[in-house]
Amino acid sequence: MNIEIWSIGKENESFIDEGIAHYFKKTKPYNPVELVILQTPKKSATTDIEKTKQQEEELILKRLEPQYYLVLLDERGKMLSSPQWAQQFQQMMNQGVKTVVLLIGGAYGVSDKVRAEAKQVWSLSNLVFPHQLVRLILAEQVYRAFSILNNSPYHHS
Amino acid sequence: MNIEIWSIGKENESFIDEGIAHYFKKTKPYNPVELVILQTPKKSATTDIEKTKQQEEELILKRLEPQYYLVLLDERGKMLSSPQWAQQFQQMMNQGVKTVVLLIGGAYGVSDKVRAEAKQVWSLSNLVFPHQLVRLILAEQVYRAFSILNNSPYHHS
Questions:
Q1: In this complex, do A130 and B141 lie within 8 Å of one another by their Cβ atoms?
Q2: Could you read off the pLDDT of B1-19 as tens digits, one per residue?
């Protein structure tokens, strides 16, 4: 099963890039995972929130294939534990999901149309994190989930 | 008010160090913040969980002065929002707290004696994060809290 982390916005700070590479390398023996940064074209930049969300919606929906399993990361979502993340990935594999997308929305969240495509909505915390840090946290949690599924000693709760 | 993040364990990976420096630099104009890594001596390393917790307890209590305001970070704690972190720091300042310690326990949590010293217990998430990532998350949340208190545009929820 391919895991893709999709994130709207800017390229990573170097420390975020390094951290993500650190966890992706550890996850690779278990399961492939990659980060896809979706950038709206600079020339179309706007301060209009609705227009921004619509531009982001186009970027997301253009890339999203019907068979992809979309998980939206959103403060209003379900707050799972790390073992529950592992269970969820296991269930997706059991269902024969080929590609799961973990989508981090833009600064203003995602449009209703994107939200409607999501099979699940997960929340990381009651705290608000910057998008780049969310990318790093997801990279670590995906590694943790597959460590749990593979009985590695990395996760001891 | 001085903010100190205390953490049991190893030195940081370079990407964590870089990330913490990134947020500390941004926080400095608002409020001083530093990271204190507490390391148990290597020669006394043990696989006995209770003994480890006791060694860590000594390290913590030796450093903890009676006037310090201790906040323990623990999965069983209260899950606050980022604006609530800001409010908490404001209340501590109003109470005349000079030094607040945000304590990240060791791999097995903290001893009951350390827990009894804590004025508050906060939880970051239902997810389990590695200690190094918790240090980085705390660095960012402290910056976010002081951005909120200073009406900076960094936090828009």
A1: no
A2: 999 999 998 899 999 999 9
Q: Evaluate the CA torsion angle B81, B82, B86, B88 in order and state its sign.
A: positive
The closest alpha carbon to A145, from A132, A129, A157, A133, belongs to: A157
Measured CA to CA, the distance from residue A22 to residue B89 in angstroms comes to 33
Nearest to B126 among A81, A129, A136 (CB): A81
The total of other beta-carbon atoms located within 10 Å of residue B141's CB is 23
Mean pLDDT of chain B: 94
ipTM of model: 0.93
At A47-84, the pLDDT tens digits run: 788 898 999 999 999 999 999 999 999 999 999 999 99
What residues in A contact B107, CB-CB < 8 Å? 156
Pick the CATH number of A2-149 from 3.40.140.10, 3.40.1280.10, 3.40.630.30, 3.30.1950.10: 3.40.1280.10
Q: Give residue limits of the domains in chain A.
A: 2-149
Contacts of A15 in chain B (CB under 8 A): 15-16, 18-19, 22
Option in A107, A126, A144 nearest B128 (CB): A144
Structure tokens given for B46:
């043990």
B136 touches chain A (CB under 8 A): yes
Query: Does residue B94 have a pLDDT over 80?
Result: yes
In this structure, which CATH number among 3.40.1280.10, 3.40.1110.10, 2.40.70.10, 2.40.50.1020 belongs to the domain B2-120?
3.40.1280.10
Q: Å from A15 to nearest chain B CA? A: 5
A144 touches chain B (CB under 8 A): yes
Q: What is the end-to-end Cα distance of chain B in Å, rounded?
A: 26
Is B15 in contact with A13 (Cβ distance < 8 A)? no
The answer to whether B133 contacts A128, with C-beta atoms less than 8 Å apart, is no
List, in order, residues 6 or more apart from A139 with CB less than 8 Å away: A5, A19, A20, A23, A24, A27, A33, A35
- pLDDT (0 to 100) of residue A42: 75
